[in-house]
Amino acid sequence: MNRTFLTILTKLALSWRALRKNRLATVGAYMVLTLVMIGILAPWLAPHDPIEQNLGKPRRPPSLEYPMGTDEFGRCILSRILYGSRISLTIGVTSIGMAMVVGVFLGLVAGYYGGLLDGFIMRIVDIMLAFPYFLLAIAIVILLGPGFFNIIITIAIYSVPTFTRVVRGLVLSQKQKEYIEAAKAFGENNSNIIFRYLLPNCIPSIIVYGTLRIGSAILVSSILGFLGLGITPPTPEWGVMLSSGRAYFRAAPHIVFFPGFAIMVAVLGFNLIGDGLRDVFDPRLREEVIK
Predict the structure, then answer these.
(1) Which residues on neighbouring strands pair with residue 70, listed in sequence order?
(2) Count of C-beta atoms within a 10 Å radius of residue 149
(3) How far apart are the first and last CA of the chain?
(4) N or C end of the chain: which has fewer CB within 10 A?
(5) Which residues pair with 76 in a beta bridge?
(6) 169, exposed or middle or buried, with CB in 10 Å at 0-12, 13-18, 19+?
(7) How far apart are CA 197 and CA 101, in angstroms?
């Protein structure tokens, strides 16, 4: 396992130079880093309590006291945006991290061993993928109920099949190559072949796909919140903020503009990083970027 870890670190280090030269990836990284810092420093940056209501100042436009205005209950939108970044980023990263662990393991096992085990795993994956992904997410969250942890579990469950299929395809393309045959000839057991040789060669594609999926996870959690199936009010979550402010869109458009803009920045940031990583980890594109 130590050798596997060193191999992975080596691959990441070799790609770091190219990643720094990719402007779009750099922009995306700064966007995501800004959101992360905002979430960490929210208690010090927020000018007001994000939950405290001020019914005497509802739907106030942006001002010095309230830089992004107030919502229908007089709550500071800026403070709620800052605290909401914690929730959205935690949901996106945690849910995709859980899905990645399970999906990568299932994909490695199914792709390497094949046979009945592969057929059993992939038939379950096919059944889950037969449902439109968002309808599947709605069905799962209805079964589990709304709430922070249930949303994480929901997004993780519906993301596992795609990771499984992607990794299985990568393994099938790698296990017939000469280095795998050489490892078998030298007496390496299946566990070593899977985790020492196959997994490191799948890591770049897994990282790219996982980064792109984080943006999708944030978007899905916001949509579920907008539909009333996500985080329960008055927790400051961007999708919930959009839902509660849609009735006042014409009279006070700032109530929905700022949460929507925050969602756009988060999703765009992760998508830019994912696109940049894809260019870096593709050997043909990496040579062009380095030049």
Answers:
(1) 76
(2) 10
(3) 34
(4) C
(5) 70
(6) middle
(7) 17
Q: Are 280 and 203 in contact (CB under 8 A)?
A: no
In whole angstroms, give the CA distance from residue 274 to residue 25.
Answer: 7
Cα torsion through 131, 137, 140, 141, rounded to 10: -160
Residue 167 structure tokens: 């990794």
Q: Evaluate whether 231 touches 148 at the Cβ level (below 8 Å).
A: yes
Tens of pLDDT along the chain (291 residues) come to 455 556 555 655 555 666 667 777 788 888 999 999 999 999 999 999 999 888 888 889 999 989 999 998 999 999 999 999 999 999 999 999 999 999 999 999 999 898 898 899 999 999 888 887 778 888 888 888 888 899 999 999 989 999 999 999 989 888 888 877 787 777 778 888 888 888 888 888 888 889 989 999 999 999 998 888 888 888 899 999 998 888 888 888 999 999 999 999 999 999 998 888 877 766 544 443 333
Report whether the peptide linkage leading into residue 200 is cis, meaning its omega lies within 30 degrees of zero.
Answer: no
Among 1, 80, 70, 86, residue whose Cα is nearest residue 35:
86
Between CA 177 and CA 171 the distance in angstroms is 10
CB of 237 closer than 8 Å to CB of 225: yes
Amino acid at 253: P
Domains of the chain plus CATH, in order, are 32-290 (1.10.3720.10)
d(CA 45, CA 35) in angstroms, rounded, equals 12
Residue with tokens 């001002």: 63
* pTM of the predicted protein model: 0.87
